[in-house]
Design a protein that fits this description.
about 450 residues; 2 domains; 4-stranded mixed sheet; 11 helices; 19 strands; about 35% helix
Length: about 450
């Protein structure tokens, strides 16, 4: 088979707001700690072609941008279909926002956003230009000292604890404890042309106090390894990070920047071990398929219920002591925008939330993307039901539709992380909460897998 790799710088200008961590934080960047990149792999096998793009971004919450990226790539490669192009984001919270409007989670910079599709397409063009015969190898290696489950475990332990080399969470089994590493070696030169690291964990080592642009622990780790292997392109594949945080989170800026190097070092060590241990795979087929599935919305959130919530938020803003620096007032402003979009979506689509699922199968390797922040239990069920030898369930692929909470977190009413994922985030971003996303996502992904065309 053939593969080619390319990368382009997508770092915005200093001064743009950073994505995430709450309403109207005004997190304006003051410098670049590490550049952000679009990194692209192109695969050719058996007369078929597929493109996999990874981005050092929090997510692309604008469907039109995903469509434009695909269109720009297809302009020069008209034989490709949309289902041949998968676009995934790392979910770094130290990059710019790509949201449809100012919903409080960072103001999107219009010039940067306008240039983004062209820059991403340029990385794909590099990858097409670099197509060559490759040997493909993979390994699954331990990666236990990075992450914890923020819904079911204690979030944000003391910094002195997590910086210990032997630190790991109380419940490691509720996180990814291994990292899958895939390497692509040039048949002609014998050198490493590209590599991929699949692992599920929020890139939030640097948190709300951080003002520097960077790709957090996976971005820094990929750059470390690319320097060790000149000419190679390293791609991070974000797994089921919906309920998984890095061990360091919610610390001060300087403490976070210190921890960033530690956590990036831990991740690069795991990936390096995988590169050293990878065993060659036989790749004799390439297939791709995608489909928009209707996911059920929670029918409790009727028009009347949404209007009731809107009235409650308007009352918060109408209180005599209301002030723009007050968190409740900031959240009320966010909810008012989101609820208006929920009402529009309810009228247009009813209690249905459409979302694209996408699979690229490369021999025994299977990339399974969905536009959600997927929780670990859902990923585990998809992996158990999949027929692929090496299934990889990837979050925030081809867009962003909020969280996919697991059944357990939905039942844990009163848990701040569970409520945030299940109820708050959908209203923030303007769609109704899901009714049964755990079971529906597993069923739909396996249904899509069965629709893969024959080799």
């Amino acid at each position: 088979m053939k593969a080619g790799f390319g990368k382009t710088d997508i770092t915005p200008r200093v001064g743009v707001e950073l994505f995430g961590f709450g309403p109207y934080r005004n997190r304006k960047s003051i410098g670049v700690r590490d550049i952000l990149e679009a990194r692209t792999a192109v695969f050719e096998c058996g007369g078929k072609t597929a493109v996999l793009v990874t981005l050092d971004l929090g997510g692309i919450y604008i469907p039109e941008v995903i469509a434009k990226i695909r269109s720009r790539i297809r302009e020069k490669h008209p034989g490709l279909q949309d289902h041949d192009i998968m676009i995934s984001t790392s979910h770094t919270h130290s990059g710019p926002a790509a949201s449809p409007c100012n919903n409080g989670w960072g103001v999107t910079d219009p010039p940067w956003l306008a240039l983004l599709p062209g820059k991403i397409a340029a990385s794909a063009e590099q990858a097409f230009a670099n197509l060559e015969e490759v040997r493909v190898s993979q390994a699954e290696v331990p990666c236990r000292h990075l992450a914890l489950n923020r819904v079911y475990d204690r979030d944000a332990p003391p910094l002195e604890d997590v910086l210990r080399e032997d630190w790991e969470p109380a419940k490691p089994e509720l996180t990814d404890t291994v990292c899958r590493v895939i390497r692509f070696d040039s048949v002609k030169t014998g050198k490493l042309a590209g590599f991929m690291a699949y692992f599920g964990c929020h890139p939030v080592v640097c948190c709300v106090s951080n003002r520097y642009l960077h790709g957090d622990y996976p971005g820094v780790a990929m750059h470390t390894l690319m320097r060790e292997f000149p000419g190679s392109v390293g791609m991070f594949l974000q797994g089921a990070e919906g309920d998984v945080n890095s061990g360091c989170v919610h610390k001060g800026e300087q403490e976070s920047l210190l921890a960033l190097d530690v956590f990036a070092g831990r991740f690069s060590n795991a990936v390096r071990n995988g590169l050293n241990q990878a065993q060659e795979l036989k790749i004799d087929s390439l297939q791709a398929v995608s489909k928009i599935f209707p996911f059920s919305a929670n029918e409790i959130f009727t028009r009347e219920k949404l209007l009731e919530i809107r009235a409650q938020q308007e009352a918060v803003l109408a209180a005599p002591d209301a002030h723009e620096d007050d968190y409740n007032c900031q959240m009320a402003a966010v909810y008012l925008q989101g609820i208006d979009r929920c009402l529009e979506n309810l009228e247009r689509e009813g209690f249905v939330i459409p979302a694209e699922l996408h699979i690229i199968r490369l021999g025994p390797l299977q990339f399974m993307g969905a536009p959600f922040e997927i929780m670990q239990a859902i990923k585990n069920d998809i992996v158990s039901a999949s027929a692929a030898p090496y299934p990889m369930v990837m979050s925030l692929t081809n867009g962003a539709c909020g969280y996919a909470p697991d059944n357990g977190s939905l039942q844990r009413k009163g848990n701040s992380c569970g409520d945030y994922a299940a109820f708050m985030t959908p209203l923030i971003f303007g769609h109704l909460p899901f009714a049964d996303i755990h079971n529906e996502l597993v069923r739909c992904m396996i249904e899509l897998e069965r629709e893969l065309p024959s080799a």
